Amino acid sequence: MREIWARRIAYLTGMIVLLLAVYFSWIQNSPNSSINMTGKEQSEMKTGHIDDVDVKRLKLGMEIYTQQGCAMCHSIQGQGNPRYPLDGVVNNLSIEEIHNWVTGDESIKDQLSMNSYKLKQLNRELTDDELQLLVYYLQNAH
User: Fold this and answer.
1) Which of 32-36, 109-113, 124-128, 137-141 has the lowest mean pLDDT?
2) Which of 6-15, 41-50, 57-66 has the weakest average pLDDT?
3) Which stretch of 11-20, 32-41, 79-88 has the lowest confidence by average pLDDT?
4) Strand 74-76, strand 79-80: pairing
5) Which whole number is the average pLDDT over 89-95?
6) Residue 86: CB partners within 8 Å, gap ≥ 6?
7) Torsion over CA of 106, 110, 112 and 114, rounded to 10 degrees?
């Protein structure tokens, strides 16, 4: 009888831990959290210091970043997985290099695990415009 109860308790504990992990993951990586603009960007929009086209491109790039699930592995502005932050990526990589990383180009194959490389190759399904918007977002997200 004790063995049955021990199994039930272990099973319930495992389920609770799993549900909590899913819940906290959802909170940390919710789609709305990466779409929100920073206070600085909001004030620049209100005062008109940023061209409307640039704000539109930034938002569209942010939406692509969210749709592609980039926040599962990366973070920008403290939102997403902090293990591989993308803040300031333009300081270290050229636009072409960023494009290669996003699409899982052959030139970066040796620098990634096979799973990461395959995941990045899924981004090749994006149109050229979508890739440009995503790279624009990575360039300008601060």
Assistant:
1) 32-36
2) 41-50
3) 32-41
4) antiparallel
5) 84
6) 70, 74, 75, 76, 138, 141
7) 80
Domain residues for the domain of 38 are 32-140
Instruction: State the first-to-last Cα distance of the chain, in angstroms, to the nearest integer.
Output: 59
Per-residue tokens: 62: 């942010």
What is the count of structural domains for the chain?
Answer: 1
pLDDT of amino acid 141: 77
Question: What kind and span of H or E run contains 82?
Answer: none
Tell me if 11 is assigned to some domain. Answer: no
Backbone angles phi, psi at 74, to 5 degrees: -125, 165
pLDDT band of residue 61 (cuts 50, 70, 90) is very high
Q: How many residues does the chain have?
A: 142
Q: Which two three-digit tokens encode residue 14?
A: 């495992």
Query: Residue 45 belongs to a domain with what CATH number?
Result: 1.10.760
Question: Which run of H or of E encompasses 109?
Answer: none
